[in-house]
Amino acid sequence: xxxxxxxxxxxxxxxxxxxxxxxxxxxxxxxxxxxxxxxxxxxxxxxxxxxxxxxxxxxxxxxxxxxxxxxxxxxxxxxxxxxxxxxxxxxxxxxxxxxxxxxxxxxxxxxxxxxxxxxxxxxxxxxxxxxxxxxxxxxxxxxxxxxxxxxxxxxxxxxxxxxxxxxxxxxxxxxxxxxxxxxxxxxxxxxxxxxxxxxxxxxxxxxxxxxxxxxxxxxxxxxxxxxxxxxxxxxxxxxxxxxxxxxxxxxx
Length: 252
What we know:
Layout: E1 2-7, E2 10-15, E3 18-22, H1 50-54, E4 59-61, H2 72-77, E5 84-86, H3 91-95, E6 102-104, E7 109-111, E8 114-119, H4 127-132, E9 137-141, E10 148-152, H5 158-167, E11 171-175, H6 191-200, E12 205-209, H7 221-230, E13 238-239, E14 246-248
Parallel strand pairs: 3-4, 4-5, 5-6, 10-11, 11-12, 12-13
Antiparallel strand pairs: 1-2, 1-14, 2-3, 7-8, 8-9, 9-10
């Protein structure tokens, strides 16, 4: 398994010999309006050309359709024949962008010996959970491979905690930027909640993403690492990649 953070929550995942693309967000810096009134988004450029991000991708996974997870640039560039996994509620909107090989994930889905399962996600709490709408997490497994849990845009909540306890994933990807709007609670995990994941799954490798790319995400890589060190969580458990960085879990 190799996981490359592109930017925000966009990942290239090499799993069971195949290239999977998660939440492609390919816009240049500054083309979206501010989310927190600070500066236009995204706040940083891609670390590579958009064509390099989608090169060789064999399957697309979408957690939801917020523009920082699936934007017009990606919809225009991606081949429309690629299989797309998504929440059932999103199928019409994605088909409207020209994609014709959709697989709404309601239960398990098998593709090239990879089993994809839906995972619960809560994109906020209280009234903000309703405002932010649905999100789909993913759980991947394959014969003789480490399992992978993609938490997506969710806060730490009983449903996520129970899912981790049940599935015991080997690798967990969290969106950890602490995104919030003025005078509102976080709508994705922040530092404290990311550390809660690490403590709940001490044998898992946790990869923190969704950092330093949007104006409503205040958590920095440095602050998260400092907090993890103070909590006794080692760098061998919590990975905080830079944009473009590849984390390789291939057995040696």
